[in-house]
Amino acid sequence: MLAAPRRIHRRIGWEVMAHLLGAEALHLEYPTRVVFDSVTAGINEGDRIGVVGRNGDGKSTLLSLLAGRLEPDAGRVTRRRGVTLAMLDQSDQLDPALTVGKAIVGELDEHVWAGDAKVRDVLAGLVADIRWDAVVGELSGGQKRRVALAALLVGDHDVILLDEPTNHLDIEGIAWLAGHLKTRWAGNSGGLIVVTHDRWFLDEVSTNTWEVHDRIIEPFEGGYAAYILQRVERDRMAAASESKRQNLMRKELAWLRRGAPARSTKPKFRMDAAYELIENEPPPRDTVSLSQMAMSRLGKDVVDLLDVSVEFPVVDPSHASGASTKTVLRDVEWRIAPGERTGILGVNGAGKSTLLNLVAGTLQPTSGRVKRGKTVKVATLTQQLVELEGIQNERVSAVIADKRTTYLAGGKEMTPGQLLERLGFTSAQLSTPVKDLSGGQKRRLQLLLILLDEPNVLILDEPTNDLDTDMLAAIEDLLDSWPGTLLVVSHDRYLLERVTDNQYAVMDAAFRHLPGGVEQYLQLRAAGSGGGGSADGAKSVPPQGGQGAGAHATGASAKPALAGAQLRNAEKEIAAIDRKLVKLADQIAQVHERLAQHDQSDYDGLGALTDELRALESQVAELETRWLELSELLGG
Hints:
There is one protein chain. The chain is α/β, with parallel strands linked by helices. Among the domains are: 1-83 and 198-223, 3-Layer(aba) Sandwich (Rossmann fold); 390-453, no CATH class; 564-633. The chain has 22 helices and 22 strands. Helix 4 (117-126) runs antiparallel to helix 6 (171-183) and helix 21 packs antiparallel against helix 22.
């Protein structure tokens, strides 16, 4: 349970850190359970708090209590006199009859809001692709969500409470929101509490973390990465019954320390403690073993897209016939390797789903050819839960009883029941009808049913919906041991970096490799490369002030830092690197094939092949680093 509201007198000049909002001895219960029991919490000036916990444990309820939208059964919420507060919840609170402009800036004169840099930044970051005069009731759910968030952020509030603000935002929008919240107030003013399953976002904006569990709130210093470290330390001292969760969290910590470079430099990480905890923890994935297994299941050929283009007919009143075509993908070449783990980025409407439909075989290209291996079995985890249709009235135990009796995960045979336990199902939930499961439970059951069908190519389309951070870690742990080709489309940056080894982007109808990963994609988008592509296809900004905001958001077009002979030499070197990378990819595929065919009892021979593979991968890493350097010099 949280201690009483902190009264830490840290002097900033002559000022003292002031208390903004507090909750004293809150008690809340429903007929079936107690949500909070005598919880006390406090928010001071400068606090940036991320809230984590299992679905259903009370995260959203906590925000409603603090905002005064829900009254506790006992205890009270106090607010310092004059403190203003705003909350974004998960329900739609906008008046459907308002226009977008009225919903965001109200009755303010245009010269007032257009002259405010903060307002222009919010408009450019969230609603630049939505018509200013559009009626709220006619917008999609995602557009309404962004309008509601924009309406909150243009206001001047001392405390902001955000419940899943990253829902319906793409990777660019999430990065923008993180940057906005980090600079919205001075470091010693304002208060932020955010509930989200986006772990990258949590780590980026939070300086403290609250974990909601078992009717209490437990505080941790730092963002998500620091929270994981402290939680591992806590779990290590817990009872033996917690051993499974300890192991999973250690694995998560090991990835955080070995993973994305941006995380490894956070000063709030206590390096010595972290290294001690993961000293004997193996890497999350045994890449060589998984590649061998994938090769044996798939053979050499998976799916090759060869010079593929896709066009769709569109209604065009300006065209003589009233119709024209839109090119979604142009001259795409992609040879998917056995065991490949690829994340695919792109704005809504760019063509990501079209690309995956080509891979899955549900769409034929307008031109070019799709070559498919004979043993390929593709499965797609969609957002529609189609796998659960027709079994809504069946109990979970009966559903999995119809599937395989065992499943191989991480070299160990597991029963479907053990897999369900690994994905967070309790024994009591096995007798629950499918229709009565929560959204997150349905998503986990959907994934299990797909895996039990043993596909060798798995496509994940926004798999993080309805899942809390613990369940995301559990699913990532399961995917670590899955021996097949994995293709992921997601706006969850943490998930992409965690489960994939390469990232590509669909930009301007082209398919582009991103050696620099998500960060490179954001740089390309900010520089204007790969331009538009909103969900509704039309780019529209508010008049005057909105246009200025758009310019502020994207910045001036990047210009090459080189000229003349230097420019030509750099372009030649990039072309040479591209050719070398193609050759190295072929060599790596050949080594993987030799590994799969080699006598598994010849350890010396396997060791030599493994060393050869590592040397080739090292060359690839060096070439990709040089490619990035040259790309930046050439202006992205």
